[in-house]
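Subject: Sanity check before I submit

Could someone independently write out the structure tokens for this chain? I want to compare against mine line by line before I put it in a report. The sequence has 344 residues.
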Amino acid sequence: MSLRRRLAYRARQTVETLFHAGLYVAARRVAGGAPDTGPLERPPPGGGALRRALMGAFEQDRAAIDQGLYPPPRASLSAAARTVSMAPAYLREAREILARRDRNGATEARAEQGSEAYPVYFRQNFHWQSGGWLTDESARLYGLQVQTLFTGAADAMRRAALGLLATTLKGKDSRLARVADIACGDGGFLVDVARAYPAMGDLIGLDMSPAYVRAAQGRLLDRPRVRLIVGDAGALPFPDASLDALTSIYLFHELPPKVRTQVASEIARVLKPGGTFVFADSLQYGDEPALDRLLEAFPKLAHEPYYESYQTTDLKALFDGAGLTAGNMRVAYLTKAMTFVKVE
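---
Independent answer below. Compare away.
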């Protein structure tokens, strides 16, 4: 990366961090303050550990760009303007989220039209957000909510998985590759994959929520080669041994334990022998001990019914049981990315 691009990257990240930090503070004020987590057992991060972890994610992202693993993020004044224009809706939703938390409205999403078509575990107001995963408004705000929660670092954290995917595909002809991102949400990760591999043979995004698939379609209008489908990660609509790689971003901590096992088995089923699953999700206790208090607080601040069970899940054992062997791992702030290879 040239000096000019390095300076541009740093300037962009500084602006994003300041904007999202300010928006987070504004949301807390609008909502009447941060919700009480109750007593926490783990010590708070000390000695600048949180800032070092945040800056480390950006440095790792920049280093991967320097190595040519993927292109730098694209600056767009129109995208920045859209983000700023969504701030009022974000702040209104912040007030509603706290009100829903206070009234314990964890399953209000079940009143949404058509919700009965989905598994019971899916029909919840995850993060206390309005509509759960089922509405267009939820899908519209999700990207901004996640970026603000992680102080502008969410994209860099996700790209830790992109770096592992790039390493997996290195030396291979991407024009022949078939890759699927399961639980693709609003398509944020798919945008980065599509930019890194514009000629990929078959790039597929799958999500259970039609609203989120529609949001992903809107983000990928300039990438018509990307296929987007509505589907369940627990019953993947792909033939056996048909994909070279799969990815999932922040899926497994949202799944009940039995469903995690089912999804792991489905991933193994559809991967070709020697194919790779690239996993990215929350840190677990002990990955970065200085940040353990944040992991402890998270499910007390947000409706995350399966987060604690995720924290105690042995991921290597989970995927080994499905026939997938653990490979590389990268940590980026509050996210870890790992590879699991199907035994040939």
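---
OP: Matches mine. For the report I'm noting this point. The chain has a mean pLDDT of 95.
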